[in-house]
Predict the structure.
Amino acid sequence: MKYFRELVGGLGFLLILGTLYFGLLHLGPAKFFTAPNAQKLFYLHVPSGLITYLAFMMVVGGSSFYLYNKSDYADNIAKCSAELGLVFGFMSLASGTFWMKAEWGGDIVSRFLTDMRLATTLVMWLLYVAYIVYRRQPETSNVKKNAAILGLSGMLMIPLSYLSSRFLRSHHPVILGTEDQGNLDPTLRLGLYMGLLGFLLLYYFLFKLRFQIEELERDYLEKRMENA
Amino acid sequence: MKYILTVFLIFLLILPVSEGSYCHQEECFTDKAELVVLDEQIVHIYYNSLFEIGENWFIIIWLEGPIENDLDLVFDFGNDNSKTLVINKNSSNYTDSLSFSGSTFNSEIFNVELNVSFNGNNNTGVIKSNSIILEIDVNKKAADDMVYLWGGMSIFWFAIGTYVLYLSNKLRDLSKKIKSNNE
């Protein structure tokens, strides 16, 4: 199908708009929250966080394959996913900061330093900022190899960030895999799943687009090298 | 100029915020009414004509002159929202206050009537009563956390928009390079 990627992207965009309509207009202010209006960030904050983990896991996967068989294809996957992980990670961290300020109050900096979920997620994100910065240089096999090793650090940081609110000191709520998941209000769950699917489709669209650009760029550089 | 603005903004951000305590001074109230009770004594009623939902709404009364019998002052919004203030006999230049909780109302209403009445016996034993109506408006303040909601929501569109713009510029530059290379 010629426009499959665009179709998926458009559908993702519509689902996100649907989530916004559902969360902001259809449902009233949430109960049992200090900041019942800011709670609506939940419908996009949680999906963006989960997509961030997915993107960084793809970096780990791509980096592993690159180190295993020197596949440029795997390296491309890692590089493109890292960029998207930064975008979705920024969304998750920034929207979480707004929500945190409204719901918990207090000093933002000290929260990031003392709450382990926030601290580990920020460190994970900064690590991939370093990854992207490192990749902004001519792509020799040595650079790719070092980047892949850096990309593999996600093997430690992703589970550390994800599990930190369960086992370390953190105020961040834990829903998945707990009793709260079953107790989640059905309307809340519908909004969450709609937002998650929307972001997943948007991620697919952006990833495919970024991947295509990366391949075009490599082809162009290879041709230039041949001509030179 | 930028430097001054930055310093000013930082100053505003770190400025300690203190919740003002309730003011019970006469000048803190926007409106005043009078109710004649018993033997022509006057009860001065100080109130604000704007009821802010979520904030306690106060009324202060000041009784001018002595009374020789107990007096019940009833403040009634209707729908079981009423409060009674009992002024004991021999009170002179008596001051008291009462408040309605900020949750008395939950939506904006204009021209809400507060019926203020009294019941009591005068010094000749005759039951007397009188009432006045105070009109107020009920206001619902914008929620404090809305700014955080819109700030947080803007982040998503800002991030997606910026990244799509970045990809679009990258693709355009690359297409130009490929085209010139082919030529």
